[in-house]
Amino acid sequence: MTRHPPTIDDEFLIAALRLASGNDPVPARVTEAARAVFGLRLPGATTAHPVATPLPQGVRSAGRPRLLRFSAGELTVELEVSSLDGLVDLAGQISPCPEVGALVEVRTLHVTESRPLSPTGQFAVTGLPPGWFSVVCHRPEHPPVATSWTRIRP
Length: 154
Hints:
The chain has 2 helices and 10 strands. It is mostly beta strands.
């Protein structure tokens, strides 16, 4: 009995050669996502990194809002994240309170909401989709301060 090698079609051979040479095409969804993320960059912005926030003692965490704190130099961004009906609400405070004319942007991959700060540095945004978000504080005469991207799950 004579053995013959398996038949290899042209498409399989081309795909194998691409993989072997490292020239496998990038999927379209990956390219689209990269372009979308590139559009969200803020050149010159200072990044506020997460800071540990202690939980209040004697309180159960189930059903409670999530507390987050970010810091960049002298500026602190405190956030309370809660969810209702699959959407996310953010209440926050910037301290020390920025001067008049400061505003906050809450950015997601699909939506950006801008809010002026109250005289005490507080703001709120409701009805956000769950997923990745970043808060950006714009102050007159200063570069923007943006929190690192954080994932919100309802």
